[in-house]
Structure formats: structure tokens, C-alpha cells
Design goal:
Helices cover 35% and strands 20% of the residues. By secondary structure, it is α/β, with parallel strands linked by helices. The strands form 3 sheets. The protein has a 7-stranded parallel beta sheet, with helices on both faces. A 4-stranded mixed beta sheet has the order 10-9-11-12. Strands 2-3 form a two-stranded antiparallel ribbon. Helix 5 runs parallel beside helix 6. The radius of gyration is 20 Å and the shape is globular. Bound molecules: nicotinamide-adenine-dinucleotide. The site of nicotinamide-adenine-dinucleotide has 36 residues, from helix 1, strand 4, helix 8 and helix 10. Nicotinamide-adenine-dinucleotide binds next to helix 1, strand 4, helix 8 and helix 10.
Length: 371
């Protein structure tokens, strides 16, 4: 199993070696195996784009990684992804990537309610952002020739998200903001990337096949048939670290989940709870309950109830694998500042498009047309 693409691929750095990182790293290495390649060839592979902007999935290469948990720092990335409190299943087993996880400043990444899950050494708690950390992190990203830095920080880590945006811009790397903290929707951050001449992608992943997609698809179907949506809600439960985090810090996620549904005219009739609770027994699974009530001909009722159960971090990796290739291509094409990619984000730069229009936008980008 090769952990290198021999220099052909996109060089990707990870900020936060949690469950999403585990799913992404294991997936990239799986798709490089004979079994993975055979799955791709057969068309039954779980990928939206086996090749995107000229890059195959296996042509994504990991170049650096940052975390704050003592059980992950200084380990090879291929080992750190299996450390506690990560709950994503072990599919490939430990591997040597040659990337050693670097220490990051904690900032607001580990609030007190995560103390029982994330292990931060006493000397590193509550440290403010300082110049030494900043220069050291830029040096790591620049010296590893990282082209795309992926923000996998816990939701609500506003300071840490901003810190690593500045690191990416200073090191000349594109930044993919997977979290709901505004980056493309923050003028100072967007201007930073415009000035640095590198692309910025965000905000907040829209999962590969998650509650937002299923919910929006149902609402769009009712509206297309002329039915009136009277009330609808979405409630989510999960057992990974991010669900505990979201339970306590739901603000930005609630706003971006509402943005993901903004393509329907009845969006005001919809209520969303990003995390109704943390159930550790669910592990990295997420359960979403979606309910839609409407009226049709002569005001007669229509009612739909859906229970969606998914592996939460596969749902993220299935999207990030496309985003790192799009970000690599955008950087190579010299695009600076926010890149509108509605298909992959709940709260994208530009307008949130219907699912069909958003897919057409990606297909145009893939052909080299960024309009
Ligand atoms: N389907 C999905 O899983 C999905 C969908 C949309 C958005 N997202 C977003 O992706 C992000 C990552 O999700 P996850 O499940 O991997 O989270 P996670 O909690 O499993 O991982 C976060 C990692 O960040 C580390 N960390 C904390 N503070 C840090 C700091 N200051 N610097 C560096 N590392 C730090 C933690 O130790 C942990 O390893 C979240 O913001 C989540 O909302 C995920």
C-alpha cells in the first residue's frame, strides 16, 4: 500500500485529527488499494466524482496535520487517527504516512464541556494566540509544501478557525472551512485570501448524504407539486465528540443548517435542532429525524416522517475528497478569495443554489469554467 503519489497529487494539511480526518485518511488509502481501485472501476464506490479536475481520489497526499490532544501529538497521522476519543471505525488499520501530528495552540478549540473527551496537557490550556505559535504553524505548512489546508476544528472554534485561516493565507495554501464558523462570510478573512492570491472555500460542509440534503429534497418536491408546507422540523442525535460540542454550541450550525434549506420559499415554516443530544452509544453514527407536514388539493393533509441513520464522518469525507481536489485546482488556476461551491457547503459563498443548479456549478468548474 503506497502512502505517496510520487508528487503528482494535491498536498493536503489537516487542522484537527478527529473523526472526519480518520474517515478521510482511511478512505484515500483504501481507494489506492487493489480492492478500492476495483470498486471504483465497477462504479460501486461511494464517490460522487472518481476523477475531479484531473485528480483521482488516490492522488490526494497528506502533507501536515495539527491537533491539541496529547494522545495524537507527535504520532504519525496514520496512527493518530485511531486515538481516543475518535470513534470512526477502523477500516484500513494503522499505516505510516510520514506526517507527524504537530502541536496547535488550543485557543477556543476545547471548551470545558469537552474536558472529559479531549486531553490537553495542563501547560497548554487556555493559552492565548501568540506570535511564536503563529510563526511555527506557518513554517510547518510552508515547509511541507501544503497546497490545501482543511479546517476540521470542532464547531464553534471561532478563534482557532481564524488563526488557521491566517496561517493558510500567510503560507500560500488554500483553506477549506468545514466548520460553521464564518470564513467566506467574514469580510476580513475573505479579504485576507484575496490579498494573498489563494482560494478560500466554505462555510460548513453539506454532508454527502445527510439531513440537509434529504430535508431540502423533500421540501423542494412538495413545492414543485404546488403543495403548501405548513410545518417541518429536523432533529439530529449523535455519539461523537462533535455532537457533544454541537449540543453546547449550536448557534452557528443552526444558522448554516437554515441556510442549507433557504432554497425553498417555505423556509420560515422549518425548525432545526443541530444536536438534540449526545448519546455515546451511537458512536460516530448520526440519526436525523425529519418531519414534513403540508396540504394539497382542497387543503387535504400530507405528512412525511423520515429517520436517517448514517456514518457521520463518512458523510464528511465523501465531500471533502472533492473539496480538496477543487481547492487544489482553484489554487493552480490562480483563483484568489472566495470560490462559490454551493453543492458542498450549507452556507456557501454566493447564493445557495437548488441541488440541480449546484451540481451544474461543480460540473462547470470541473471543465475549467468558473462562472
Ligand atoms: N458529517 C460531518 O461529520 C460534518 C458535516 C458538516 C460539518 N462538519 C464539521 O467538521 C468539523 C470536524 O468534525 P469532526 O467530527 O472531525 O470533529 P472532532 O471533534 O472529531 O475533531 C476535532 C479535532 O480537533 C482537535 N482540536 C481541538 N482544538 C484544536 C485546535 N485549537 N487546533 C487543532 N486541533 C484542535 C480535537 O482534538 C479533535 O481531534 C466540525 O466543525 C463539524 O461541525 C462535519
Amino acid at each position: 500500500l503506497s502512502t505517496s503519489t510520487g508528487g503528482r497529487g494535491v498536498r493536503v494539511g489537516l487542522v484537527g485529527v478527529g473523526n472526519n480526518a480518520s474517515a478521510l485518511v482511511q478512505g484515500v488509502f483504501h481507494y489506492r488499494t487493489a480492492a478500492g481501485a476495483a470498486a471504483v472501476a465497477s462504479g460501486r464506490h461511494g464517490l460522487r466524482f472518481p476523477v475531479l479536475c484531473g485528480y483521482a481520489v488516490g492522488e490526494v497526499e497528506f502533507s501536515c496535520a495539527f491537533d491539541v490532544d496529547e494522545r495524537k501529538i507527535d504520532l504519525d497521522l496514520g496512527e493518530a487517527i485511531f486515538s481516543e476519543p475518535n470513534r470512526y471505525p477502523v477500516v484500513t488499520g494503522p499505516m505510516e504516512t510520514g506526517v507527524v501530528v504537530s502541536r496547535a495552540p488550543v485557543l477556543d478549540g476545547v471548551p470545558a464541556f469537552l474536558d472529559d473527551l479531549v486531553l490537553v496537557a495542563a501547560g497548554h490550556r487556555g493559552r492565548d494566540r501568540n506570535g511564536d505559535d503563529f510563526d511555527r504553524c506557518i513554517e510547518v505548512v510552508a515547509s511541507t509544501e501544503t497546497e490545501v489546508l482543511v479546517n476540521f476544528l470542532p464547531s464553534g472554534s471561532n478563534d482557532a478557525t481564524d488563526f488557521f485561516a491566517r496561517v493558510a493565507a500567510a503560507a500560500g495554501a488554500a483553506y477549506v472551512n468545514c466548520t460553521p464558523t464564518p470564513a467566506v462570510h467574514s469580510d476580513p478573512v475573505a479579504d485576507l485570501f484575496l490579498d494573498a492570491g489563494v482560494p478560500l472555500l466554505g462555510d460548513d460542509l453539506e454532508s454527502h448524504f445527510g439531513s440537509s440534503l434529504v430535508h431540502r429534497t423533500l421540501l423542494e418536491a412538495l413545492e414543485q407539486r404546488g403543495l403548501e408546507i405548513t410545518h417541518s422540523y429536523q432533529v439530529n442525535l449523535g455519539g461523537n465528540t462533535d455532537f457533544k460540542n454541537l449540543f453546547h454550541r449550536p448557534g452557528a450550525k443552526r444558522a448554516s443548517k437554515r441556510s442549507a434549506l433557504s432554497t425553498v420559499s417555505s423556509a420560515d415554516a422549518v425548525e432545526v435542532i443541530p444536536s438534540a443530544g449526545y448519546l455515546s452509544g451511537l458512536g460516530d453514527n448520526k440519526v436525523g429525524y425529519i418531519s414534513v407536514e403540508g396540504v394539497g388539493w382542497l387543503g387535504m393533509p400530507v405528512s412525511i416522517d423520515v429517520k436517517l441513520k448514517v456514518q457521520d464522518s463518512s458523510n464528511a469525507a465523501g465531500v471533502v475528497i472533492d473539496l480538496v481536489r477543487l481547492a487544489g485546482a482553484a489554487r493552480e488556476r490562480g483563483l484568489a478569495g472566495c470560490v462559490p461551491l454551493s453543492y458542498y457547503f450549507k452556507n456557501p459563498a454566493g447564493e445557495k443554489l437548488s441541488t440541480a443548479d449546484a451540481l451544474a456549478q461543480i460540473e462547470r468548474f470541473d471543465r475549467g469554467d468558473e462562472s
